Amino acid sequence: MYFPHRRSLVWRYLWILSFLTVIILTLNFFWSSAKLRRSEFSHLRNKASALTEQFIAMRSFIADNHHRINFAASGKFDFKHVTPAEVGKEVSDLFASRTAYLIKQTRLNARNPENFPDAFEREALSKFAQNPELTELYTEYRMNDKQIFRYITPIYLEQSCLACHGEPAGELDVAGFPREGLRGGELAGAISVLIPMGETQLTLADSRNSLLIFSLVLLVTILLGSLVLTARLVIRPLQELANMALQVGKGDLSAKFGKINAYGEVAALVHEFSVMVNTLKDLYQNMERKVNSRTREMEAANLRLQEGQKYLTQLNYKLSENSRLKSEFMATVTHELKTPLTSIVAFCEILLDEIPGPLNGEQKEDLLDIKTSAQQLMILISDILDMAKFEAGALRVEKEKVDLNDVFRVVRRTMSAIAYQNNIRLTVSKSELPLLMGDPERLRQIISNLISNSIKFVKEGGEITVFAEADKEFAAISVADTGEGIPPELMPHIFEKFRQGEESLRRRRGGTGLGLALVKTLVELHDGSVSVKSELGKGTTFTIRIPFVRL
Prior knowledge:
11 helices; alpha+beta; elongated; 3 domains; Heat Shock Protein 90; 14% strand; five-stranded mixed beta sheet
């Protein structure tokens, strides 16, 4: 027989089947037990009902034949104390001596103290009095550590009973007891029956044990039958199919699937697998020929690829060398250009200070133009030089504690003339912020580049405002202008190299397109960030965030 592994599908199937079977058998056990109990309870009720009906019939017979019993043949009254109550008591005692059953006549005001009702009987008599349609009451009851069945049914006063229990009330009847003054049809009392349930409990226990044994046998039979059938019809052929599949997977395509004894869907699966293996044989044979052909083609392509790789390596070396030479050339040219420009700016400042002699208004205006153009050219050259250093990996920032007002003071002195030449008002607000951690020269360069960028796009009479405020652990330095604004489609690209805010023909001033790219690079070297907000026709605000000095 096939025994499944713990992680196999059959093992899970058996566990699920066992679980469902146990649930069903358990439910059936409890349902059948409850049904047997109800049946035995109904049987006890019917038995008790038959006894009480027979007992009541006996009482009725005594009552109906009272004149025949208590009168002599001569017609003279001869009371023999044969009344329904007396006969019932004697019969009840006799019945109790021969059986385990107990029949009791009871009423609230019983003439015989032995017939006084107990708690169950008093409650039943009360319910019978309240509901005349109630014909019986029964329940299980525990008495003297034994389970018993209690049954009680009401007795209503018949016409033959009025001689002893009718009117007038208080008058003595033939037995010497005062009459109760009852009327026909009124509740006279009840017949109570006590039946021991020991036999019933044994029967129920026997039935439950039989049902439990049957359920266990059925469970074992179902599981063993399922295991045997599943192993023979499903698992064994699938296992054989799996072994052959492993054989095929190792490259042996000579497996014979016809030896597998399978039925139904498993047989169809075996057939399809056999067809697949035959197809694989054909494909394998064709593939070997194709592989040999492709191998030769790949070897030739590999040789061509190696030659191309060598050529690309040489070309990459040349490009790297050209890039290095370009960076060195740009650095050299820009450095050489800054020297004469610095002299030009210095001489312009000397002449504007009128140290050599006084100047007229036109001369001052011309010198101011020369100085402004030289300063702008120096900014462009500095941007080119810094970008070349960045590409060469040589751009550095020297961080120290910086008072932002010192940086603003240099920016105001440098950029005011350029803004004035373009008829633009430049406002640099005083800062009340703590010290920053940064490179003062680079911070000046960042803010100057942002102001220079704004000057290009602000019309004459416009305004540029520089201010700073705290933003958590950063100083948020903003350069806001009243210029034309940036189109939304250009916003994602404004910090890219060689990208400019408007088309060349529309721009009023030239530029390299490196200013904003350099701003972003320098800000990130300060462990900060840069952002921009713009609205067409209303202006643009650039904001850089530089960290404060950590305490």
